[in-house]
Design brief:
About 50% of the residues lie in helices and about 10% in strands. By secondary structure, the protein is of the alpha+beta class.
């Protein structure tokens, strides 16, 4: 039996759901899956691998349809054409963010850049981030990234197991040095990687639609902590994460004193922090947010790269042949990139084949929009389902096949971006919400993949039953990020003197 207070609370909650269902934005929205009264499609949407459900609906309702979540209308874009039209060419009106009540407001106190709606604070932090991570500024991080690629090879040589963790550690080390200056992470610094992993996984998981009821019914934020244990937990998480980010910032300030040649983002953009009025708290959370994004996404992408090489040995051999023809026995460098278009194409195809932020982060219409005869009202959420866009057969025939050649022209060079499709950048967001660290991430992926191709052969593991084939449609869902389910593979050095060839890098 329920007590009277419990019944009263449940009745009040039901009334709130009903009121929110009634107050949803009105407009001539594109049709979508029919739902139930009041709750709409709420009960049909899974909490895990939501991108696959949205992709399934796209095959039935087209590349532009509407989902109803308890009165909250979400327009889903599922093709390169619709995404380009709405999120890129109408970016002035579609760069808003929905309220991330739990993740953005309670857990981060509106300090994490990715959850901010356009405004004065967002513009200040975007400008300083752009100064530190634009395509030219990223060249200063080449030495860090080359050294950490060499360290990754050494780590795998020493123990070719637990690849996922080694890849994450490599991306963490390169990102750490590029943000905070200083030497590479050591084994004693593993706590930093674990800390970022825990912080990132928690906040990205909390940002997923329907992860917390308060995001469906924002009025619940007004509940006192004693009635809302989730709220008390979120505020304590903010305090602990803030201390962690400030600690990283302080470590970086201490370490940069001993760095003579290579200075990271925090040190190099310190004058801009002062110029644009960025507080120390904003700097700590901005750098921490970039650390989360760099580690979580790049490490997962490298893991998918290895899976692709295992499953597509002909692609692996072709890429290795290109690398060998350019660098021979020496390790690759960024100076080789222009001569390695096929490796660049492998990077692009990995990002397309398995975009790790598969659903993307929702946008919000900041004004009424007309598109294809429909009206998307101001305040409507818009999701560009990156998985569907990257697997759009209109641009990528046989999208489940791993084909780097789709990015190569008849002359052997990288193709120009396809019309309506921003090349690999679609995986980094759209319009004014494109990830400001995309050039840094692409650089890191290129040098790590080039090193791995130069150093190792990748094979399917075998047992007494024969070859163990990984299931590429099984995912380890970490909220906003999807990782491959662990798969057995054999990693073998391609050169007997690999350690000597790496030298002191």
């Amino acid at each position: 039996m329920f007590s009277l207070p419990q019944l009263a609370f449940g009745a009040g909650l039901l009334c709130l759901v009903f009121l929110y269902a009634l107050r949803g934005p009105k407009g001539k929205l594109p049709p979508g899956p029919p739902g139930l009264p009041i709750v709409g499609n709420l009960l049909e949407i899974p909490t895990k691998q939501m991108f696959l459900k949205f992709d399934e609906w796209a095959k039935k309702y087209g590349d532009l349809y509407t989902v109803n979540v308890a009165g909250k209308k979400i327009v889903v874009l599922s093709s390169a054409k619709s995404s380009g039209d709405v999120l890129d060419r109408k970016s002035g009106a579609t760069s808003g963010r929905p309220r991330f009540v739990m993740a953005g407001e309670i857990m981060c106190h509106n300090l994490l850049y990715m959850f901010m709606s356009p405004g004065e604070q967002w513009r200040r932090l975007r400008r300083v981030t752009h100064e530190g991570f634009n395509i030219r500024a990223c060249q200063a991080y080449y030495p860090f990234q080359e050294q950490e690629a060499a360290n990754l090879v050494r780590s795998i040589m020493a123990e070719p197991t637990d690849l996922g963790q080694k890849l994450k550690h490599a991306t963490a080390a390169a990102t750490w040095r590029s943000l905070y200056s200083g030497p590479s992470l050591t084994e004693e610094d593993e706590a930093k990687v674990c800390g970022i992993d825990n912080v990132g996984e928690t906040v990205l998981g909390a940002s997923m639609p329907m992860a917390f009821l308060v995001d469906v019914i924002p009025a619940m934020k007004m509940l006192p902590n004693w009635m809302a244990g989730w709220k008390a937990w979120g505020e304590e998480w903010f305090r602990e994460s803030g201390r962690f980010f400030h600690g990283l910032l302080d470590d970086g300030k201490q370490q940069k004193k001993g760095v003579e040649h290579h200075v990271g983002f925090i040190a190099s953009t310190a004058p801009s922090f002062k110029k644009f009025g960025v507080t120390e708290q904003e700097a700590a959370w901005t750098a921490g947010g970039l650390f989360i994004a760099g580690v979580e996404t790049s490490g997962a992408t490298l893991h998918y790269f290895i899976q692709a090489m295992v499953l597509n040995p002909e692609v692996c051999r072709a890429a290795q042949k290109h690398v060998d023809s350019v660098v021979g026995n020496r390790p690759p460098t960024f100076d080789d990139r222009d001569q390695l278009p096929y490796v660049v194409a492998v990077v692009k195809e990995t990002i397309r084949w398995r975009p790790v932020a598969a659903l993307g982060v929702p946008h919000v219409a900041d004004e009424d929009l007309e598109y294809r005869g429909y009206v998307i009202p101001k305040g409507t959420q818009i999701i560009g389902n990156i998985w569907s866009i990257a697997h759009d057969p209109a641009y990528f025939p046989y999208p489940e096949q791993f084909q780097p050649s789709r990015f190569i022209d008849s002359s052997g060079n990288i193709k120009e971006p396809f019309p309506n499709y921003h090349d690999d950048i679609v995986a980094f967001g759209a319009g004014r919400r494109v990830c400001p660290g995309r050039d840094f991430a692409n650089n890191m992926l290129f040098i790590d993949m080039a090193y791995l191709l130069w150093a190792f052969d990748f094979e399917l593991a075998r047992n007494e039953m024969g070859t163990s084939m990984p299931d590429t449609m099984k995912f380890d869902d970490h909220g906003l990020i999807i990782l491959p389910v662990e798969f057995p593979c054999v990693v073998k050095p391609r050169r007997n003197d690999l350690g000597e060839l790496l030298g002191d890098m």
